[in-house]
Design goal:
Length: 112
């Protein structure tokens, strides 16, 4: 998905705070037997921290990866790698985002 927008203040004509003109996500997934492998890229263009458009926030792109293994029909083991390349970025000035993170999970989804 891609969002192309013009998030402007109608009075000042400046971009709204923390809103980029372009934002997008690309995701792909495939199954290989009991395995399911996926990955995606989330990207945002430059935006501004404030309504006066004097404090820029740089654009960014992060990569997220995931793998799932079906242990049984209703039981899956999953592994997620978020921000795979450990990208340092901010969605709000002064607030850092999570670094690379790994999550291992077990999901039970019984048929009811």
């Amino acid at each position: 998905s891609v969002d192309a927008q013009s998030p402007k203040d109608v009075d000042s004509g400046k971009l709204l705070a923390r809103r980029s003109k372009l934002f997008g996500t690309l995701r792909a997934q495939t199954k290989l037997g009991a395995f399911s492998l996926g990955g995606g890229v989330q990207a945002s263009g430059q935006r501004y921290e404030n309504a006066s458009n004097t404090t820029p926030l740089g654009g960014y792109a992060i990569v997220n990866l995931d793998a799932h293994y079906a242990l049984q029909r209703d039981l899956k083991l999953s592994l997620n790698l978020d921000n795979a390349f450990n990208r340092v970025y901010q969605v709000a000035n002064g607030y850092n985002t999570a670094p690379r993170s790994v999550m291992l999970g077990l999901r039970w989804s019984p048929a009811l």
